[in-house]
Structure formats: structure tokens, C-alpha cells
Amino acid sequence: MTKHIPFIFLDEKNTETPLYRQIYEAICRAILSGEVSAKTRLPSTRDLAKQLGVSRITVVNAYDQLFAEGYLEGKIGSGTFVAAKLPDEFLQTEKAATKTNSNKENTNLNLSPFGENLLAKGTKKRHQQNAVRYLPFQNGLTAIDQFPFDVWSRIAAKFQRNPPISLLIYGDSQGYLPLREAIANRLKSSRGVNCTAEQVIITAGAQQALDLTARIFLSEKDSVLVENPCYIEAKNSFLATKAKVESVAVDAEGLEVAKIPKNSKAKLIYVTPSHQYPLGVTMSLSRRLALLDWAKQHNAWIIEDDYNSEFRYAGRPLASMQGLDNAGRVIYVGTFSKTIFPSLRIGCVVAPPELVEIFTAARALNDVHSSTIDQAILAEFIADGHFARHIRKMRQLYEMRQKILVEECKKELSDYLEIEKADAGMHLVGWLKGNLNDELISRKAREKGLIVSPISAYSNPRLKRGGLILGYTAFDERRIKDGMKILKEIMQAETRV
Q: C-alpha distances in angstroms, 309 versus 154, 265, 444, 447, 479?
């Protein structure tokens, strides 16, 4: 018999906790307290959504999280049940959390300036909110269901069944040499990067590369130039060093080099020239050359974040800025999070020769090296041509999904949003019409189980117009269409207010 759930009370005014999360937490509490016992059958997502007066996708997202954490289990044709066995540590969660919270006010943390800076920014809460949920329209997610896991698993099995001793002991902090060679060859052929394997340092994604660069170059008295709007976590890496962050406007040709303050003494310049994040524009050749000249004249370093340049739908991917650099002022940063899957956590820095040693030393201090077996799997995946084939397939799929997104936006949201197709990338920006507030729409969307990031969150100073970042690469036609209908309901409601 299906258990009615009387213990869920939704607070629609609570903008801090999305509705799906409130449902998830209520069911967790009921299970842990014993109010709902093991093997109890729960309502279907459709029935519970009707009971609570929310969209079905909101309940689906809550159930998905409960399944992932082991609270629920399903039986084909029989419905959804509370798990028969819960790990002991689950049962201790609430008691431990209560004990920790009760002592919080009496604890003197005695942090460093770096730690105090992180605490003041609410880092943990921000990253919990941004954790990957695979919800429309979160940007930067790959189409994981389309990844060739059969190939990946076959390569992984070879290394894991009988791994050579060299993959099981401490490895090179600079990275597994065959992977560095594969990356160097790939970057030279597809991105026009001028490098050798000796210049490649393997990192735990692009974020670690940015963090290492910030720590190596910046201190409290230094300044760094960033685009406006700018990738938030890059800016936060710079702010964590107490450096001064100066924003430079972006237009249709990328960062406006002519608007760099004449008295600027910036040591670093952070740019995303191939596909600006989040606006999606491409930096023109004249701007690239002008920025390279500025860096040379001012003894500054350029960080080129080439985060998703592989996905270009019109012509070949544009050559990197690093390939144009004849003065050795560009530090190239790349990642496989946007091409393989985010949890792989493998990226790279291509450093000028004189910086390789210091980057390797900083990498060694940070966490010695990334998993050598994972590096070996990726190296063979690239060397055997599987990576290139996967990229070609994803370009076609992502271009089709972008087309669906644009069509659905114009069909459902033409009264509220302006959007146009792009030649590259994994997301589009929809510009809001009228007085719609992008941060408010974003909060309302999260409550309904959608993730649409507001452009204003990336801007300082704010842009004149609000917009929403809409990722499309991870979502099929049905999820895009369903998500658009929910967005329309939200915008209609806000327009009537």
C-alpha cells in the first residue's frame, strides 16, 4: 500500500531553498526519524506533484537525489520504496549536524587571512548550490549519456586488471608523460597552440590551473584585469589572494583593450578569447594582437582560458591566442570537463618554458599529482583517436540541441526573452525584455527544478540589461521543451505582478 506523505510542508517564500530540495529534506527527515519505515512504498512522482501542487519535474529531481544517496530504491513495475537497508552513517547525520551546529558560536576558528576571505564569501554554500544536479538549463554539462563508455571501460579495464607498477607509485607532479604528449599533439593540431609536452602541466581541471596561477603571481598589492562579465570562479581565485580585480568591458569583439586603465599595473589578464564566458563572443584578431602587445609592454601575463573551444559549429575552431604569442606572455589553460565529463577532473596548463618549473613545484605542493591511472586512460583514449571521434559526434548533437533551444525559446518566450543562435559553445544567453529581473527569475526557476544563471551575477559593474544563461548540451528535446514551459509560467507570473 502506498504511504501518504503528510510531513511535507513547502515554503514557497523561501528563496534560499529550492522546492525540490525542501521535498528531498522532508523525506530524508521522515526516513531517519522512523516516521516512514524501510520498504514503505512512496507515491509516484505524478501523484506527489499533484498532492503538493508543484510541477512533476520538481518531484522527479527530489526523488533522483534520494535514489542517488541510497534512501530510495525502485522495483520495475512496482513503484518507489524506502531502501530496505540504510548505512549506519546516514542514521547519525542529523545528530552529528546538530552537535556541530550547537558549538559553532563558541568556536574561535583562528583562520589565516586567506581562510577568513573564503569564509566571508560563503564558499561552501555557493558550491553546494552550484553542485551538478543535471537540471535544465545548467550550463557546462556534457551529454554524458552519449559518451562512449564501452570504449572508455575497455581501456580502463586494461590498466586496472594488471596495472604496471609505474601507475601505482607516486607519479610525476608535472603529469603522466604520455598524456602530456597526447595533449600537446592535440593542441597543436586543433588549437594552433605552439608547445611541446615539456610545457604541459596536468591539473585537476581548469579551476586548479587558475588557482595555481593566482597563487604564483598575485599578492595583496597586485592587480589583475578580468572581462566584464567574467567567470565567477576565476575572479574568486584572484580575490582569494587579496589582489585587486579590475573589470574591463566586453563588446562584440571581446575585451575592449582600449579601455584598460592607462595607469594599470596589472600582473595578470584573464580572458576567454575563443568563446567569451558568459556572453559567447569571439575576440577579434586585432584585439588579440593589441592585448598581446599590451602584455609585452607592461610585463604582464595573459591567462587564456580555452574552456570549450572544441565546440564550434561553423567552420574549424579558431586558433588560440597562445599560437599568436611571439613574446611568451600567454599561459594557456584547458580542461576535459567540458568534453569528457566533469568528474574526471583533468585539465592542463601550457606554460612558457621559464614558468614550467615553478608551476610544477606549485602543483606538487597542492596535491602532488592527479590519479595516474586516470591520466593513462585518457592518454590512450586520445592517442587512439576516440577523443577526436567523440568531439565530432558531440558537435553535431550540440548544434542540433542549440537549434531546438532557440526554436522553443522563440515559440514559448518571445514576449519575455530575446535569443539568437551562436556559432560555438555550450550555452546561449537570453536577454530579458521589459523590467524582468534576471536574479529573481533565476531564483524562481531553481524552486521549480531549473538552473538558469543570471548574467548580473557575473557582472561588476552590472550590465544595462538582464539576461539568463541557458545550457543545452546535456538535455534532450523533451527536457528542453518541458523546461521552456516552466520558464514561461514563471515569466508570465512575474509579468503580472
A: 28, 29, 31, 32, 25
